[in-house]
Amino acid sequence: MAGTLFAASASTARGTDLREEGRTRITELISAEQRRTRHDRAGYQRLRREVDSIARQAGRRDARVQEAQARADALAARSGFTPLRGSGVRVILNDAPQRDYGRQVSPDDLVVHQTDVQAVVNALWAGGAAGMQIMDQRVISTSAVRCVGNTLILQGVVYSPPFTITAVGDPRRLRAALDGSPEISIYKRYVREYGLGYSVRAADQVTLPGYSGNVTLNHATVP
Question: What is the pTM for the complete model shown?
Answer without folding.
Answer: 0.71
